[in-house]
Every structure is written in structure tokens, then in C-alpha cells.
Write a structure and sequence with these properties.
By secondary structure, this protein is of the alpha/beta class. Helices cover 41% and strands 16% of the residues. It contains 9 helices and 8 strands. It has an 8-stranded parallel β-sheet with strand order 1-2-3-4-5-6-7-8. It is globular and about 45 Å long. The relative contact order is 0.15. The C terminus is likely disordered.
Length: 268
């Protein structure tokens, strides 16, 4: 059995003391690839070093919407240059909109649009953060698609309603579920997890945040816990855990153009 954690933040200080042990645990549960997201381009060198320390780790470069005040026109060129400087860069982001913690929509839209242009120019997927902004996000993307053409990508750590989920599916996005899907009262997330087509489904930890049940009491989430996320999504969809793992692994390789694990280990 194989799994891919499509969203991690291993460069955070919480992981520094025992990262090799953490890596051993993710390998033990069958994680064969990981995608490391980026909050701001200043993290690039640290994330790049991790990607070359762990062969199964790939990464993105971008600017998080909560850091949109850092956006300048030159940053678009900088992100594009970084994204082409290392073959282990597989995405742009995380980028997007967050109206829960910030009230600067104009800056967020500017930074998001520019990063979508980079993703489109480089034919890379966008890792999209969306919090309390689903309607504005969908409207914006629909307009962008009309004016400039589609961009492939994933709605990461998804927490929206089935109706919101469908709008992003209609735009061709993958939908990725995190530890929140294991929470008892996350009813709308459960319903969304049931409806996503098999070929658009991903799983992630967003570690060190959002530890899943049964690890919810632990302050530090880690990649090995994506096992519990996948397990819960499989339960909600009433399918075998092994089938869910194989499908999401295949989907992640497809979206991020990751080197595929041994074909004999992935059911046709």
C-alpha cells in the first residue's frame, strides 16, 4: 500500500529536533511521495534543502494569501525564476484567498492572479488556499478561465460545502482533504468527501497543523498521520482503504507530475 501526502510544511521549527525519525515513520506507513508547500519565497532555500535531503519530497514555491502585503510586481518574476531553477519544484503556491484572518482582498487578488499566470506559463498546478472565500474564489477563477484559460490545481485542506465543491470541480480542480475530515462534527466536509469523483481526490496532512482523529490531541501533526485521513475518507466513501490509497496516489502523481512508484504496486 502506498500513500502521498500532498501538503506538508516540514521546514517549520517544530520538526527540526527529530525530522529523521519523522521520515522513518512516514516511510513505515507507506508514504512514497510528499509535496512541500511554500508560505513565502524566502523559505525557498530551506525547503529546497529538505527536498534534496529526502528523495521522496517535492515542493512548491509561492506566496500565501496571509502574506499578500509582501506582494510586489517583481515578486512574480522572482517566483517564476525560482520555480524553474530546480526540477523538484512541482507546483506554485500555496496561494489563494483568506478572508478569515485578513481584510486586504485587493492585495490578495493581485498576488493570487499573478501566481496563476506563473502557474499557467510554466504548466504547473496551483496549490490553492481558500478560507471563508469560496464564492469570491469561484467567481474570480471563472473570470480568469474566461479571460486567460484554465490553470490546473488543487483546493487544499478543503472545508467547503458540496455546492462549493462542485464549482471547483467544474473548473477542473482536484480536491484535497486534511485532518478536518476526521472531525466528528465536520458534516459538510464529510458530504464533500463523498461526492468528489475518484480521479479528483487527494489527501494531505497540512502538518504541523490539524492533527486528525485519533491524534487530534497532539499539537504537532506529521506526514505519517495522512494514514488516518485516507482511512476516514475511505470510510465515508464506503470503499476499501487500499483502493482509496491507490487512487489518491495515482491522482497526486498525475496532478504534480511526480515520478510514479512501481507500477506493479498500483492497481490498474
Amino acid at each position: 500500500m502506498q500513500l502521498i501526502d500532498t501538503h506538508v510544511h516540514l521546514n517549520f521549527d517544530a520538526f527540526e529536533p527529530d525530522l529523521d525519525a519523522i521520515a522513518e515513520r512516514w516511510r513505515t506507513v507507506g508514504i512514497v511521495r510528499l509535496v512541500h508547500s511554500c508560505v513565502e519565497p524566502s523559505e525557498f532555500e530551506a525547503i529546497q534543502a529538505l527536498a534534496h535531503r529526502f528523495p521522496e519530497l517535492f515542493f512548491a514555491v509561492g506566496l500565501h494569501p496571509l502574506d499578500a502585503e509582501q506582494w510586489t510586481p517583481s515578486l512574480q518574476h522572482h517566483i517564476q525564476t525560482l520555480a524553474t531553477s530546480d526540477s523538484k519544484v512541482v507546483a506554485i503556491g500555496e496561494t489563494g484567498l483568506d478572508f478569515f484572518k485578513a481584510d486586504n482582498p485587493a492585495q490578495q487578488f493581485e498576488a493570487f492572479q499573478a501566481q496563476l499566470h506563473v502557474a499557467r506559463a510554466l504548466d504547473l498546478p496551483a496549490i490553492v488556499h481558500c478560507r471563508d472565500a469560496a464564492e469570491a474564489m469561484a467567481d474570480f477563477l471563472e473570470s480568469f478561465w474566461t479571460q486567460h484559460g484554465p490553470v490546473k490545481g488543487v483546493m487544499h485542506c478543503w472545508g467547503g460545502t458540496p455546492e462549493e465543491t462542485q464549482r471547483f470541480l467544474d473548473l477542473g480542480f482536484y480536491i484535497s482533504f486534511s485532518g478536518t475530515v476526521t472531525f466528528k462534527n465536520a458534516i459538510q466536509i464529510h458530504e464533500s468527501a463523498k461526492m468528489v469523483p475518484p480521479d479528483k481526490l487527494l489527501v494531505e496532512t497540512d502538518c504541523p497543523f490539524l492533527s486528525p482523529v485519533p491524534k487530534r490531541g497532539e499539537k504537532r501533526n506529521e506526514p505519517a498521520h495522512v494514514y488516518y485521513v485516507a482511512q476516514r475518507v475511505a470510510e465515508l466513501r464506503a470503499i476499501a482503504f487500499e483502493d482509496l490509497a491507490a487512487q489518491t496516489t495515482q491522482n497526486a502523481c498525475q496532478l504534480f507530475n511526480l515520478p510514479r512508484p512501481a507500477e506493479s504496486l498500483i492497481p490498474a
